[in-house]
Fold this sequence. Notes:
Blueprint: H1 4-21, E1 25-26, E2 39-43, E3 46-54, E4 63-68, E5 71-76, E6 84-89, E7 94-96, E8 107-108, E9 119-120, E10 141-142, E11 147-148, H2 150-156, H3 164-170, H4 176-183, H5 187-197, H6 206-210, H7 213-225
Amino acid sequence: MHHTKNKGDLAVAKAIADLIYKQYSVLAPVACEHLPFDLVVYKDAKFYRIQAKFSADGVVKNRTSWADKNGSHEKKYKLDDFDYYALYLPDLDKVVYPSIKFGGCCITTELPLSPTPFYWWEDFTDFTDNAPKRNYKEFGVDLTTRKVNSEARIKTRKVERPLKEELEKMVWEKPTLQIGKDFGVSDKAVEKWCKAYGIEKPPRGYWMKKGVGEESKIVRLSEAEV
Length: 226
């Protein structure tokens, strides 16, 4: 059982290690306890303010609490307090990065045997401003037996998407259909990645002008004939 202070320190340490692995430059942990964020990281000429949290249940807490000589206190975060959470999920030993807009939400790490839509942790592995809500059908859950169809789960398991910077570069180098083939997913999945990251794709007709439109059409038609 982790002490509350230790949990916070562990979340910060895990976030630092993960962000360095993702090639962010991490500034020294913020020493001032009155600031609403724990870390500042830098990449591609942008700074990001990070609030690290330990969350055993996947809940993205939208408030901070502390105690002093005057008792216990609690304060709700404002939208401009920081940019992203670094939410450490101990059951998975993973860190996810929902934006502050997701405060108060719950990020699921185990498939709920319920028709209620949910946020899935794999959609938040990098700084995430938008993410779709998932449903049990995508993961092969049979609500009549309350079991997960393992074969369907394997088929529908989401491929780990590339980092935002990598995908942003790819969409201007090749059509989404080809990117999907490279990753073993559909072009619709690639479009969802772009939407989740907020990446702007080339305008309609871009690849026709580049001379690869016909090739993409042929590939699409050949797949439809299979």
